[in-house]
C-alpha cells in the first residue's frame, strides 16, 4: 500500500488555505492593500506561521498569480487536446486568451493589476506561463502548417507552409510595454446592447 506522508499533506493543505485566503483578499481589496497580517488573522494564525510556508509576501503574490494564469493554461490544454483542426485550435486558443484577459481587465481589476505587476517585474511564474502558452501556440501553428502543406499543390502555398510559424504569426502574451499601452476602455469590451 502507498500511504501519503501526513506531514507533507498537512503542509500542502496549509499552503492551499493561505493561497485561497490571499486570493480572496486580492480580489476584494487588491494585492497592494492585502497584508500578511490580514491573511494570518483570517486563518487564525500568526504572521510568523505564514512565513513558515512562504518566505515573503512576494512569494504569496507570485503563487496567487500562478493560480490566475493556471486557468488560462487549463483552457489551453483543453483546446490543444480537442479533435479540431490545428487552425481552429489556434484560433480558439487566441480567442480564449483574449476573452480571459478582457474579462480580468473589466470584471476583476485587482487581479489585472497583479498580472500587470507580474509582467513589469518579470515574475518567474508569469514567464513560465507565457513560455508554456507560446510553446502550445507554436505546436498548433506547426501542425497547421503541416496539414496545409500536405493539402496544398502550388509552390507558393508550399513555401508559405514551410516558413517558420513566427514569420507568419507573431505572438506576444502580456508583453511589458504593449500590455499597458493597449488597454481599451472597459466600455469597448462590453457587448453592445440591442437598443444602441
Strand content: under 5%
Q: Low-confidence parts lasting 5 or more residues at pLDDT below 50?
A: 163-182
CA gyration radius, whole angstroms: 21 Å
- Overall average pLDDT: 78
Order of helices and strands: HHHHHHHHHHH
Distance between the termini: 65 Å
Main beta sheet: strand number and arrangement? none
How many helix segments? 11
The coarse silhouette is elongated
Helix/strand/pairing category: mainly alpha
Q: What is the total tally of β strands?
A: 0
Helical content band: over 70%
Supply the key terms.
196 residues; mainly alpha; 11 helices; 76% helix
What would you note in describing this structure?
Residues 163-182 have low confidence and may be disordered. The longest helix has 28 residues, at 124-151. The protein has helices at residues 6-29, 36-43, 47-53, 57-81, 86-107, 109-120, 124-151, 155-162, 165-168, 176-181, 186-189. Helices cover 76% and strands 0% of the residues. The chain contains eleven helices and no strands.
Please outline what is shown here.
With 196 residues, the protein is mainly α. It is built from eleven helices and no strands. The chain is elongated, with a radius of gyration of 21 Å.
Write the topology of this structure.
Layout: H1 6-29, H2 36-43, H3 47-53, H4 57-81, H5 86-107, H6 109-120, H7 124-151, H8 155-162, H9 165-168, H10 176-181, H11 186-189
Helix pairs in contact: 1-2, 1-4, 1-6, 4-5, 4-6, 4-7, 5-6, 5-7, 7-8
Amino acid at each position: 500500500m502507498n500511504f501519503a506522508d501526513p506531514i507533507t499533506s498537512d503542509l500542502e493543505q496549509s499552503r492551499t488555505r493561505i493561497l485561497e485566503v490571499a486570493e480572496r483578499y486580492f480580489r476584494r481589496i487588491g494585492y497592494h492593500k492585502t497584508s500578511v497580517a490580514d491573511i494570518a488573522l483570517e486563518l487564525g494564525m500568526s504572521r510568523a506561521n505564514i512565513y513558515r510556508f512562504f518566505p515573503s509576501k512576494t512569494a504569496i503574490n507570485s503563487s496567487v498569480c500562478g493560480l490566475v494564469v493556471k486557468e488560462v493554461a487549463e483552457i489551453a490544454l483543453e483546446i490543444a487536446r480537442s479533435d479540431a483542426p490545428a487552425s481552429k485550435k489556434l484560433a480558439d486558443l487566441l480567442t480564449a486568451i483574449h476573452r480571459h484577459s478582457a474579462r480580468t481587465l473589466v470584471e476583476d481589476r485587482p487581479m489585472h493589476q497583479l498580472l500587470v505587476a507580474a509582467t513589469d517585474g518579470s515574475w518567474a511564474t508569469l514567464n513560465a506561463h507565457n513560455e508554456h502558452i507560446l510553446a502550445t501556440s507554436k505546436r498548433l501553428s506547426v501542425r497547421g502548417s503541416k496539414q496545409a502543406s500536405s493539402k496544398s499543390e502550388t509552390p507558393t502555398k508550399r513555401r508559405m507552409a514551410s516558413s517558420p510559424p513566427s514569420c507568419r504569426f507573431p505572438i506576444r502574451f502580456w508583453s511589458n510595454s504593449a500590455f499597458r499601452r493597449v488597454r481599451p476602455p472597459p466600455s469597448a469590451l462590453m457587448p453592445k446592447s440591442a437598443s444602441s
